[in-house]
Amino acid sequence: MDGIVIIGSSAAGVSAAREIRSIDPKLKVTIISEDSDYPYYRPFLTEFIGNSDVQSKSNFFLNSASWYAQNNIELVLNERITEIRHEEKRVVSSSGRSYGYDKLIIATGSSPFVPINGALDFENVFTVRSFSDAKKVFGFSNSVKNAIIIGGGPLGLEAAYSLHKKGMSVSVVELSKRLLALQLDPEGSDFFHAIIKKAGVNILLGESVDEIIGNSIATGVKLSSGRTLDTEMIIFSIGVRSNLDLPMSSGIKVDRAVIVNEKMETSVPHVYACGDVSQFNGRCIALWMPAVKKGKIAGSNAAGKEMLYTDEIYPAVLNSFDTRLFSYGDVSCDEKNSDEKTYKSIEVEKNIFRKLFFKNEILKGFILINDNSPSQKLTLAVKEKKRYNDVVNVIIK
């Protein structure tokens, strides 16, 4: 028996391995990763670029180095799989080494989207997707005084905060007309924007980068408005794209990601996909929590125990600029529509913002800034379709 081979060692891949081992203590499990580091908690990387001590946290690495041997899981690092031979049930790496399998799980994740060709050829232009990336950014940022972050989403803002805390002057270029447009309503965006502005980080809204100025070293950017900004360092943080070269080259059906069913099965028998590289019901969600869940389901089904995936709503969580943000569900509302209304409580002095969104008296979503205490109860209330009076009078007050 060749057992189960997992390609990829981030959230989904390690979750799959853990689930397989919980079901069958003897089944052979091999994780193959092109990464050179033991699997780590990727959301810590934007914090690491400002403070390398983050890697000493007990949960920075997903497991201790000894955990893999203790659980009889072979972890192969620095190995890039370039070919899947379905008929032979075998994968082949760039080094020419091959691995047989009975079941295969593809958990190759995603890569940063960089829309400017050749941008990463500049010595001081970076993305932060791997631990290796983060180490490079940390090292380079020690010798410069200012940076531009391209992208004002959660990860871009976290990166901006990390460099700001390091004493750097930071500007964030964001295409949207307001901050966190997917996670906050306009009022919430303005509230959070004011906090960041007060901290001293420059936010440029409604702008994009048309050109990077410089030769081998970027010295600035030209914005869509025609304005130019000088800089010593650039980080792109404008989203990711699923890593599809391997599944596409092997004939697995893909759309924006690998198409899977509720068992995480792909179009090819005995081959599963999970995490950022997978797409279920037309949705591919590049978040840590669903990656862990999809990995668990892929691992369970590959090990012979049926488990089905169901779509969920996942919260947006941000902890930056000494501010905690928690957003969940539908946070849009047209109060001109009599069916829709909000409840809000704002304490400007304490930077506390609470806003709940209702349709036909039913709670649909909420935003909490610097008061996460009711987040679990409110999340359950959304799922249970609680009514306005029950939520406002029981949970909030």
What are the SSEs and their pairings?
Blueprint (H helix, E strand, L loop, with lengths): L3 E4 L3 H13 L5 E4 L12 H4 L16 H6 L2 E4 L4 E5 L4 E4 L4 E3 L2 E4 L3 E3 L12 E3 L3 H11 L4 E5 L3 H12 L3 E6 L11 H14 L2 E4 L3 E6 L3 E6 L4 E3 L3 E3 L3 E3 L2 H5 L8 E2 L11 E3 L4 E2 L8 H15 L13 E5 L2 E7 L10 E8 L4 E8 L2 E8 L5 H9 L4 H9 L1
Parallel strand pairs: 1-2, 1-7, 2-3, 7-19, 9-16, 10-11, 10-16, 11-12, 18-20
Antiparallel strand pairs: 4-5, 5-6, 8-17, 13-14, 14-15, 21-22, 22-25, 23-24, 24-25
Helix pairs in contact: 1-8
Short description:
The protein has 397 residues and is α/β, with parallel strands linked by helices.
Can you characterise this structure?
The chain is α/β, with parallel strands linked by helices. Helices cover 25% and strands 28% of the residues. It is built from 10 helices and 25 strands. The strands form 7 sheets. The protein has a 5-stranded parallel beta sheet. A 5-stranded parallel beta sheet has the order 9-16-10-11-12, with helices on one face. A 5-stranded antiparallel beta sheet has the order 21-22-25-24-23, sandwiched between helices. Strand 21 and strand 22 form a beta hairpin. The mean pLDDT is 96.
List keywords for this structure.
single chain; 397 residues; alpha/beta; 5-stranded parallel sheet; 25% helix
Low-confidence blocks of residues: none
Q: How far from one another are the termini?
A: 60 Å
Contiguous helical run count: 10
Instruction: Write down the overall geometry.
Output: globular
Question: Mean pLDDT across all residues, rounded?
Answer: 96
Helix content: 10-25%
Q: Helix/strand/pairing class, anyone? A: alpha/beta
Largest sheet geometry: 5 strands, parallel
What would you report as the Rg, rounded to the nearest angstrom? 23 Å
Strand tally, please? 25
